[in-house]
Design a protein that fits this description.
It contains 1 helix and 9 strands. It has 96 residues and is mostly beta strands.
Length: 96
């Protein structure tokens, strides 16, 4: 059994990750741990994300829903004309 057997979503990141070898040999750059328990992109269990671009150093709390309610998304985030939600780095998603 590999890590991909349980994968529901695939996070793609730019670059080849050569400077982070051997950390990126088995995982993408966003999944590389830093500061102990965090990841470069940390998406909590049960979060539902659809049509979203998430920059590095953003932690998406468990059970958060992004990209399913355009009106709610426009109140909290930048949403492109085509409906893609953009969340810049170091955005705090912990509050309402």
């Amino acid at each position: 059994m590999t890590i991909l057997d349980d994968t529901l979503t695939l996070v793609l990141a730019g670059g080849r990750g050569q400077r982070l070898l051997p950390l990126t040999r088995e995982r993408s750059k966003p999944a590389v741990p830093f500061g102990g328990m965090y990841r470069i992109v940390d998406i909590g269990r049960g979060a539902r994300i659809n049509s979203v671009i998430i920059d590095k150093c953003v932690r998406v709390p468990p059970n958060m829903i992004i990209g399913e309610d355009p009106k709610a998304d426009k109140k909290r985030f930048f949403v492109t004309d085509s409906g893609i939600v953009v969340i810049p780095k170091e955005t705090d998603l912990s509050g309402p």
